[in-house]
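Protein record

Derive tokens from sequence
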Amino acid sequence: MKKICFITTIPITVKAFLQKQISLLQEEEFDITVICANAEELSNVLDSKVTFISLPFKRGADLPGILPNIYRLYRIFKREQFDIINYLTPNASFYSCIAGRLAKGKNLIYSQCGLRYIALSKPAYSIFRFIEKVTCRLSDEVQPVSASMMKFCIQEHFYSPKKANLIGHGSSCGVDLNRFNLEKKEQWRNELRQENSLTEDVFVIGFVGRITADKGVNELLEACKPIVSKEKILWLVGPFDDVSTINPDLLSWAKACPYVIHTPFVNDIERYYAAFDLFVLPSYREGFGNVSIEAQAMKVPCLVTDILGLKDTILPGTTGELVKVKDIEDLKRLLNEMTNNKGRLKKYGDEGRHFVERYFSETDLMKQFIEDKKRKI
């Protein structure tokens, strides 16, 4: 039986991006090992035949943990002799590529989900750019999650075109079109709006993601401040993450404003997209931005930043619009234009569903991931 090891920093990455792929690989009779911090949390979402190994990985800078974690992985790789070692997320990938090389591992695959250093300032920018470059250099193959990120990294000499392998048209997992079921959209929309005392004629500007500066939340709040009213509300769905990065005055305003709704992390996000009229993500950095294609799967038009990865998730002028990063005035302008043109939004919504069905179906993308791994071994 062929052996594959997936390594991520924290378990939520496995739940979000790898769960379906792992299940399908098991059906193909692969022996699967998952390594991450608190791996036991995955026992209730993955098959009991999956081997879980917990290591003390941490997010963010963890200088004391670098050498011990590389050594731990080295010992595991030496002992298990995996046929494929597939890693994603910055810290886990950095440890794994070094440990994999030292252990003379086969098929070291880096699933490049984003460029963490992009939104940083020096000296952190230089340090994390170096780490990214090392990870790419030591990997046998890099699988970038978007075409624009792949093009950028080739231009920056992170890796050669020969080493790059874009699966499908991008995305780590695509969209489950059965879960994001248009036949249930009206029902979900009515239910959620009734639960939140919103009539059908209230326009909902929706956001899904971590409530933090990197996701453009400061710009979103600032741009929505003069717009929201009884007829036009902002709905934020997602957990607070490093709330200190949010402007305290804007945060206080949002918490007190009756036209701003906040819902923490939810497991039925498809129902919330159904309640939105426009999805907005003014993020500073994204490897791809699955939330954008999820919104489009529910026929919700999108307004997202013109940045690497995220710009690949829409067809500008067809399924949504691109806004300049960190540009509040441009965001205000586009919000005003889009919220006052329902005909345009309906067209964008209809085209968005077709776009996702054609390029980002989970079923089609998973087939390509599985075939790619079978070819390697």
In short: The longest helix spans residues 342-359. The chain has two domains: 3-173+362-376, 182-359.
